[in-house]
Amino acid sequence: MKAVLQRVSHASVVVKGDTIGAIDQGLLVFIGVEAEDDTQAADKLIKKLLNIRVFSDAEGKMNLSVSDIAGGILLVSQFTLAADTQKGNRPGFSKAAKPEHAEMLYDYMVAKTREQHAQVATGRFAADMKISLLNDGPVTFLLNT
């Protein structure tokens, strides 16, 4: 699995004019599922998301996790993260999981994250989404499992 994690002051997802997910301070996480990914990869990613120290402590050092600050997590499925861009100018998606498998793992991640964290919002799998965010820092990380 691949994830792009952004520390945000706020973020939201709109589908067909309706806001379906929103958070204040926390993490916006775009998730890309590849064909070989499984629930173990999802569990590893969830653990990292909940514990990665990207928020500032009283001394201004990145020493706190989203769990420590009781921040929000906005999980958004993003198929294009699985793209192969090494050849030519058109991305290839042969490494991406089939939609049924990707949706199952995305739903699994959402459910498991909600079991462990109070504030979890989501996008909608395979929807045309409009994402708004205010990146705080900017702080952005690429995670691979």
From TrEMBL:
<dbReference type="GO" id="GO:0019478">
    <property type="term" value="P:D-amino acid catabolic process"/>
</dbReference>
<comment type="subunit">
    <text>Homodimer.</text>
</comment>
<keyword id="KW-0963">Cytoplasm</keyword>
<comment type="similarity">
    <text>Belongs to the DTD family.</text>
</comment>
<dbReference type="InterPro" id="IPR003732">
    <property type="entry name" value="Daa-tRNA_deacyls_DTD"/>
</dbReference>
<protein>
    <recommendedName>
        <fullName>D-aminoacyl-tRNA deacylase</fullName>
        <ecNumber>3.1.1.96</ecNumber>
        <ecNumber>3.1.1.-</ecNumber>
    </recommendedName>
</protein>
<dbReference type="GO" id="GO:0000049">
    <property type="term" value="F:tRNA binding"/>
</dbReference>
<keyword id="KW-0378">Hydrolase</keyword>
<dbReference type="GO" id="GO:0043908">
    <property type="term" value="F:Ser(Gly)-tRNA(Ala) hydrolase activity"/>
</dbReference>
<dbReference type="GO" id="GO:0051500">
    <property type="term" value="F:D-tyrosyl-tRNA(Tyr) deacylase activity"/>
</dbReference>
<dbReference type="GO" id="GO:0106026">
    <property type="term" value="F:Gly-tRNA(Ala) deacylase activity"/>
</dbReference>
<dbReference type="Pfam" id="PF02580">
    <property type="entry name" value="Tyr_Deacylase"/>
</dbReference>
<keyword id="KW-0694">RNA-binding</keyword>
<feature type="short sequence motif" description="Gly-cisPro motif, important for rejection of L-amino acids">
    <location>
        <begin position="137"/>
        <end position="138"/>
    </location>
</feature>
<comment type="function">
    <text>An aminoacyl-tRNA editing enzyme that deacylates mischarged D-aminoacyl-tRNAs. Also deacylates mischarged glycyl-tRNA(Ala), protecting cells against glycine mischarging by AlaRS. Acts via tRNA-based rather than protein-based catalysis; rejects L-amino acids rather than detecting D-amino acids in the active site. By recycling D-aminoacyl-tRNA to D-amino acids and free tRNA molecules, this enzyme counteracts the toxicity associated with the formation of D-aminoacyl-tRNA entities in vivo and helps enforce protein L-homochirality.</text>
</comment>
<dbReference type="InterPro" id="IPR023509">
    <property type="entry name" value="DTD-like_sf"/>
</dbReference>
<dbReference type="GO" id="GO:0005737">
    <property type="term" value="C:cytoplasm"/>
</dbReference>
<keyword id="KW-0820">tRNA-binding</keyword>
